[in-house]
Amino acid sequence: MCLVMIQALQFNACNGLRLNGLHHVNSPRNHISIESCSYATLYQLQINSPKDSPNTDGIDISNSTHVRIINSTISTGKFPSFCFICCTVINLSFSSNMN
């Protein structure tokens, strides 16, 4: 039997995406995926997973431009995973729950 685990939120080809005040806890895979988006702003996000969670990437960003992440915290089980390419990051904190 093959289990397919999906991310909590996935956005494709969005222009002007705004996410504000979301709190994600223990997603089965990555928490948020941003793909082929432009001018996205993610503000005051809290992403948390326990240390024994498998493959819990915080935010995966691909083929996107002008992505801003502001005043957010990412604390995931595997390691603080994040893509910095084509992003503006303001007051973002990471922590790892590996200990």
Automatic annotation (TrEMBL):
- Any one Gene Ontology BP term: cell wall organization
Q: Where in the cell is it found?
A: Secreted, Cell wall
InterPro entries noted in UniProt? Glyco_hydro_28, Pectin_lyas_fold, Pectin_lyase_fold/virulence
Tell me the Gene3D superfamilies matching this sequence.
Answer: Single-stranded right-handed beta-helix, Pectin lyase-like
Q: Which residues form a coiled coil?
A: none
What family classification does the UniProt entry report for this protein? Belongs to the glycosyl hydrolase 28 family.
Quote the protein name from its UniProt record: Uncharacterized protein
Organism encoding this protein: Nelumbo nucifera
